[in-house]
Amino acid sequence: MADSRSVNLAHWDERAPAHAASPDYGFDRFVSDPEHLSDVVRFDLPRLGDISGLVGLHLQCHIGTDTLSLSRLGARMTGLDFSAVSIDQARSLAARAGAEIDYVVADAYDAVNALGEGTFDLVYTGIGALCWLPDIDRWAKTIRGLLRPGGRLFIREGHPLLWALDYEREDTDLVLRYPYFETVDPVVDNTEGSYVEIEGALTNTENHSWNHGLGEIVTALLDAGMTITALEEHESVPWNPFGAQIVRPDADGEWRFIDSTIRIPLTYTLQAVAS
Known about the structure:
Layout: H1 4-20, H2 27-32, H3 39-43, H4 45-48, E1 55-59, H5 65-72, E2 76-81, H6 84-97, E3 102-105, H7 111-115, E4 120-125, H8 136-146, E5 147-158, H9 160-164, E6 187-190, E7 206-209, H10 214-223, E8 226-234, E9 247-249, E10 255-257, E11 267-274
């Protein structure tokens, strides 16, 4: 098997410019409207609360739209991602939008070495981040290392049940296809397109991912010295993983099942505080 990090880096390096040009990420709207926020951050505004004046880190920030959104809410933000191409796009967006955001190229597991121990009041991580990391215990220890005592982790993520479903089916059945719990070996997938509208074909289609059960995530954070302060499961997701036959866009930018009798979690928001 090819090295997972190299495979995933090629995957994201190719997608970063395509995502920056996508209308779904909406770079132009961020530039033209100084109050514009990403749909993901806007969804969790009631849970985020007042973050003005906090020193924050967006871990695995990709092209920086959520990072910029958090900066606009008043936090002094840093973004970190392992893809230099993604960071270049994030820096460009911040410059065009007139935002002062520090961006660092580093692996998530190397964040403490790159940024310092106990540096942040807030560590934020968003949708589709944890699945690219093979070891959730190591991730949780990294989070604790980054936070000052009393600092907060805020995560909005795809639910592990969502990642375990067969999202390539053409019918309306919901079928478990992938592991729910963490595995040693990654799930190897080939994805020709992307989760947002892009132009042109992509060549680096292979990617390697790992699921992490909700209990595994919570336990890892507890073992690392974090106190869970909030955990909410949501029946919506900010992109369409199944097709229009099953889900629909809603006014808040989220997608939900058309059939209201299907009540399963698609995403979750978790908050924890460092001891």
